[in-house]
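Here is a protein:
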Amino acid sequence: MTNRPVLIYDGDCGFCAASVRFAERRIGVRAHVTPWQRADLPALGTTPERADREVLWVEHGRVYGGAQAAARLLVAAGGPWSVLGHALRTPPLRWAAHGLYRLVAANRHRLPGGTPACSLPAARR
């Protein structure tokens, strides 16, 4: 385990990789960033199945997934980003963010940078 937060994403998904690069450039990710395919998931408290399904933020032994992982990333970035991150952690924005995240995740193979492999489970890539 590390003292620094860890952002885990799907390294086989072009859309996911492009999204992480965007976050690193424009938002400033204050975490160790790694594709789940290279991460020690058991040591981080998660599984390949979960990491294949959603982006993860691991901090202080807790694992946050999907929209809440994105919210944690924004809070950690500080400044105006943290205001948005805190808002995304509060209902009803939390619920809306969850729904939007699920919609994007289910269609990531159709989005810019996405490939047909993005729609396949890891075992079939």
Q: What stands out?
A: The chain has six helices and four strands. The mean pLDDT is 91.
